[in-house]
Amino acid sequence: MKITGIKIHQPAGLLRLCTDSELEGWCMGLTPDISRRLVEQMAPVIIDQNPLDRERLWQELVRLDHERHAALHGYIDIALWDLAAKAVGVSLYRFINGFRNRIPVYKRGTGLSPDQVMEEAQRAQHEGFKGYKITTQRSIEIMVSLIPHLRDAMGPDFYLILDGGGQLTIADAIKIGRALDEADYYWFDRPRPANDTTGGKQVADELDTPITAEVTTPLEASQVMSTQSADHIKTGTPYSGGITDILKIGRCTEAFGAFCHLDGPGACDGFAHGHLLGAIKNAPFFEWTDHDNPAPIIKNPLQVVEGHIQLPSGPGLGMDIDLNALDNQTAEIIRT
Question: Regarding beta strands 3-11 and 14-19, do their DSSP bridges make them parallel or antiparallel, or are they unpaired?
Fold first, then answer.
């Protein structure tokens, strides 16, 4: 089997990796600008290559991305994995490793005021979500006051997380973190900027609540883990790459006994992250957001039922594409 071309439907955002067989690999979520750059820069590396040689192609595409300071290879990598799983007729999570097919879900909040946060968290609990994440977009004093009040309102068995957005000073992160310690929050997401191993370690050493550091490469993950500048890792597709990248990051963190948290729904309207979570033991939750409106071309969007998403059983990513809707959502096809 050989790769014969790439077609990207816009504005639908669907990448189709074509081969000399009837099989195609798919990835969703490409913008027109990304599509044009990908076809121009990445396609020459993969045309006429065997799509099952994923590791070799990944090495070539990552090198090219680094040379051009781009972040394009993840879309092709996801399509390659989708194609490989389709070739053997199994769901992608099972093709990778096959750990579970039902993933617990927490809700990422958007509320900016304490009342909005409380309302969102209680609604999430009522809807069956397993937890709720606060985003820090208010004063430190308000945050420190809100943290215990939210725990009291939600009870001891509901997972609570706070996202620092990578923007807190060391002193503010420690102050908030100590409030999280007292209120038994599950983890403290991104208190410090990415790659701040020194500041991250200062915060991590002061707190009982685990903190995460955001990484985009397996090398960054290994540096965070070896320097103990965070307890866990935060990453995701497509900004950190594709399936191959996240598997390497996840296995690195697992070797250190740490979690690999995935950021939001990720590529392919959550299908890529869903399958990764189905294959990685040390990734505990799917992160759901209110803006997760499914693409109109997907007939079987992921849904939260009783606080979980059920992974599709179809081959590959399992996305059921409505071809009529795809035609309606296609103003142009960017292709090799």
Answer: antiparallel
